[in-house]
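This is your field. Have a critical look at both lines of this record:
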Amino acid sequence: MRSAGWLSLSFAVVAGLTVAISRAAEEQPASANATSTEANAPPTAAPPASVVPVTPKDAAPPPSVTIIGASDAHGVLGRDVRSAADEDMGRIVDVIVDREGHVRAAVIDFGGFLGVGSRKIVVDWNALRFGKIANKKDSITLELTKAQVAAAPEYKEDTPMVVLGASGSLQPLQSIQ
């Protein structure tokens, strides 16, 4: 019930700010109708600092605002990854996106001990399961075994990458000519 109250209050604040910004953008500055003879007039005192600057009509509209609840979304970089058998698979260190910005894969720092002997491998985004990540200590589940991931080639930036997928779920990236 509390979260619904906060959500309503947040929505009201955002709506009020949006109305205030749009009204300020519609106001015309008093100097817009000044004639050229007034341009030669002696300078007058600067307007008080409390005056809100007016933006021109062709300025960008105010940004949209979306409120996402803390239990509805979580960051993934640095998050531990475990297999379905609860084996340590490493941690997510990067996310791979295609030219349209769609998430395609995750780079996992796999193996080693305290960063020594580890290597980066790329896994298909669809092979990851995020169902049980309620806080920062929870891990992401990878639908691959430790042996499958160990056999994957190492990822090197700016070179073609081999993406390890679960049961043929990865679709090839179309080359753009």
Notes: The first strand starts at residue 80 and ends at 83. The chain has a mean pLDDT of 74. The radius of gyration is 27 Å.
